[in-house]
From TrEMBL:
It holds the Pfam family Gln-synt_C. Catalyzes the ATP-dependent biosynthesis of glutamine from glutamate and ammonia. GO terms for biological process: glutamine biosynthetic process. This is Glutamine synthetase. Homooctamer and homotetramer. Belongs to the glutamine synthetase family. GO terms for cellular component: cytoplasm. One of its GO terms (molecular function) is glutamine synthetase activity. It is an enzyme of class 6 (ligase). Residues 3-81 form the GS beta-grasp domain. Gene3D superfamilies: Glutamine synthetase, N-terminal domain, Glutamine synthetase/guanido kinase, catalytic domain. The keyword Magnesium does not apply.
């Protein structure tokens, strides 16, 4: 007997990487081995030296195929099998997660996305525009909700894959939705977010619908799509000094631009200061403030402990990069402040 392993990896497409996958048939009970692919077709190699290596890093039950079949998330390496490929941002997160692991960082990421049917967001009429924003967020009813059957199927698939998905909701634009992954450790949340994205595309494919992480999927007076990143360390979960220290660390000289520039392609077009965003070039934080770069949830101020929400990452961000930067910036400062 045999089973199917769907090898999933992140390619080298610029400026925003894409997911790729292909299937390997394995003998029952066999561990997914190292495999290879044609990097010249994924912007990860030149044609004359095209081989790249797929090294499995996490496996999940495959909810699409069911049975013993697996989804196998991989890191990409050069053929010496020792050098992470330049597109392999997971390799950069590994040592940072290990260095600050003692602080027990946790992340919950809110992934917003938009369904498209042809060239229009799902629910946009063939001519003109739908009624303006206002009723769609967490709405109900056929006049407000587009694609719920796909969203439900995706949620079910994530749960069957064993992903730490924590919720879903309809967003402020028709056809726009969100799911949340976490709270989980940096590597876990980023791995599982990438797999949940793959399952989103794969699930919607069967409905003849595409999903996009485009941060500004509709021009005009429509919300963009983000990936609000909720973050805490053990000290932040235990006290308010650590919450404020983390917020201030993110505002230190040079940090705001360093973060924003690595929070996804086109972040300047989304962080305009309108539509529940702060301007990309002005750092701010505040309690309950959805117009700030970083929000301290109201119950965190009340309880004097908990987590913070970085509202800046784009829907199309790389969670390996976003979690690395947050851990590097906040955990280093918490350590200096004796709050590690
Ligand atoms: P919002 O009110 O901004 O829409 P959501 O409910 O969509 O918030 O998402 C909040 C996310 O924060 C969830 O994924 C949740 O699991 C996560 N979260 C909760 N507590 C923590 C914590 N202590 N550290 C990190 N993330 C957390
Ligand atoms: Mn949310
Ligand atoms: Mn949202
Ligand atoms: Mn949020």
């Amino acid at each position: 007997m045999s089973y199917k392993a769907e090898y999933i990896w992140i390619d080298g497409t610029e400026p925003t990487a894409k997911l790729r996958s292909k299937t390997k048939i394995l003998a029952d009970g066999a561990e997914p081995p190292v495999w290879g692919f044609d990097g010249s077709s994924t912007n990860q190699a030149e044609g004359h030296a095209s081989d790249r290596v797929l090294r499995p890093v996490a496996s999940f039950p495959d909810p699409i195929r069911g049975g013993e079949n697996l989804l196998v998330l991989c890191e990409v390496f050069d053929t010496d099998d020792d050098t992470p490929h330049s597109s392999n941002t997971r390799a950069l997160l590994r040592p940072v997660a290990e260095r600050f692991g003692g602080q027990e960082p946790l992340f919950g990421i809110e992934q917003e996305y938009t369904f498209f049917k042809g060239s229009r967001p799902l629910g946009f009429p063939e001519n003109g525009f739908p009624a303006p924003q206002g009723g769609y967020y967490c709405g109900v009813g056929a006049d407000e909700i587009y694609g719920r059957e796909i969203v439900e199927a995706h949620l079910e698939n994530c749960l069957r894959a064993g992903l730490g998905i924590s919720g879903i909701n309809a967003e402020v634009m028709p056809g726009q939705w969100e799911f949340q992954v976490g709270p989980l450790s940096p590597l876990e949340v980023a791995d599982q977010l990438w797999v949940a994205r793959w399952l989103l595309y794969r699930t919607a494919e069967d409905f003849g619908v595409s999903a996009t992480l485009d941060p500004k999927p509709a021009k005009g007076d429509w919300n963009g799509a983000g990936a609000h990143t909720n973050f805490s360390t053990r000290a932040m979960r235990e006290g308010y000094d650590a919450i404020i220290t983390a917020c201030d660390a993110l505002g230190a000289e040079g940090k705001p631009l360093h973060h924003v520039r690595n929070y996804g392609t086109g972040v300047e077009d989304r962080l305009t200061g309108a539509h529940e965003t702060a301007p990309w070039d002005e750092y701010s934080y505040g309690v309950s403030d959805r117009g700030a770069s970083v929000r301290i949830p109201w119950q965190v101020e009340r309880d004097k402990k908990g987590y913070i929400e970085d509202r800046r990452p784009n829907a199309n961000c790389d969670p390996y990069v976003v979690t690395r930067l947050l851990v590097e910036t906040c955990c280093a400062e918490l350590e200096r402040a004796g709050l590690a």
